[in-house]
Amino acid sequence: MKISELLKKDTLSLSFEVFPPKTEYAFESVKHATEEIAKLKPLFMSVTYGAGGGTSQYTLDIAKNIKERYGVPSLAHLTCVSSTKETVRGKITDMKDAGILNVMALRGDIPAGMENADRSKWDYRYAIQLVKDIKHSGADFCIGGACYPEIHPESPDQKSDIKYLKEKVDAGCEFLTTQMFFDNNLLYNFLYKIREAGITVPVIPGIMPITNAKQVERAVSLSGSFMPQRFKSLVDKFGHDPSAMKQAGIAYATDQIIDLYANGITNVHVYSMNNPDVAAKIQNNLSDILGK
Ligand code: FAD
Fold first, then answer.
1. pLDDT (tens digit, 9 = 90+) per residue, 184-216?
2. Where are any strands of DSSP class E within the chain?
3. Whose C-alpha lies nearest to ligand 1, atom 28?
């Protein structure tokens, strides 16, 4: 089913994310994690895409499996920045042939060492170009895009970030998923601003349950997310104790989701990172609210 249709529900629903293995040796463990998460019957499951395209076949295989074997709608990510038009055309055809209905169209991060390269010669500089190519491919995909409540790290300011986001949505994105954030007020401010700018598509907030202290550093360096004092205190208190930190991180993410739902948001994407245990604990914490 298309995600644009699934998002019409007005009660709380969760979706979960998995990422493909980097090598074929890890494929079985990712398959197992995927299966366990699928058993939770989320609204949909997304499968990320290796920026360089190295694990791209796995993304497609996993997304197909989620849909066909487990009966859960899937969302296949696709990045474009290090690809040629020809490669992307092939990927779009493969997705269509595999019966994929939902595609997350992303630029991808600039590969290390290429930050100062002459980008004018690249086939793809921005996700909007990929959105347009998918839209004009003749396949009837539901296309999603990424957005950044705390602005994209390369953007000079929020005004231009939102201007380009609007262009990307107008090119064919039917929904947006946000970068992780740890302070819901940042999301509410962002929603206010994008609605004012005329972006009306559904926005799915992305929540990352931080379950170990190392993850904090990685999350901040990857996303530049602001860490509220309430969250820092929790890491200070429990960071040295893995099981306590995991419990506290799951409780914090659960709290964020409850607050989002209380403020009118009905779909939340959980960056569950191939971790069925974390996905299940969050879902159990919300069982009465979810009716599951
Ligand atoms: P864009 O929408 O192209 O934006 C990138 C930057 O360019 C922004 O600063 C924007 O303001 C600016 N910009 C856009 N258009 C223009 C224009 N016309 N002129 C000037 N500036 C412009 N990465 C992966 O490798 N694999 C994944 O599976 C993956 N999944 C993700 C899922 C989500 C929900 C999110 C939030 C991110 C994900 N990423 C993934 C990371 C993403 O690829 C990076 O954040 C990347 O740096 C930007 O991708 P984008 O699609 O948002 O790019």
1. 999 999 999 999 999 999 999 999 999 988 888
2. 13-18, 45-47, 74-79, 102-106, 142-147, 175-180, 203-207, 267-270
3. 48
Mutation to probe ligand 1, out of 3, 17, 107, 271 (largest number of atoms < 8 A from CB) = 107
Distance 128 CA to ligand 1 centre (A): 9
Q: Which residue has the higher pLDDT, 264 or 217?
A: 264
Q: Counting atoms of ligand 1 from 1, which one is nearest the CA of 59?
A: 28
What b/e readout covers 26-40, taking b as 16+ CB neighbours within 10 angstroms? ebeebbebbeebbeb
Ligand 1 mean position, distance from CA 69 (Å): 31
DSSP letter string, 57-123: HHHHHHHHHHHHTT---EEEEEE-TT--HHHHHHHHHHHHHTT--EEEEE--PPPTT-TTS-GGG-S
CA of 81 to the centre of ligand 1 (A): 9
Q: Which residues are catalytic?
A: 17
Does this model's pTM top 0.90? yes
Name, in order, each residue with C-beta under 8 angstroms of 171's C-beta and a sequence gap of 6 or more.
128, 131, 132, 135
The terminus-to-terminus CA distance of the chain in angstroms comes to 21
Q: Looking up tokens 């779009």, which residue turns up?
A: 92
* 3 state DSSP class of 48: coil
Any idea which fold 3-290 has?
Answer: TIM Barrel (3.20.20)
In a mutational test of the pocket of ligand 1, which residue from 126, 158, 159 has the highest number of ligand atoms less than 8 Å from its CB? 126
Residue nearest to atom 13 of ligand 1 (CA): 164
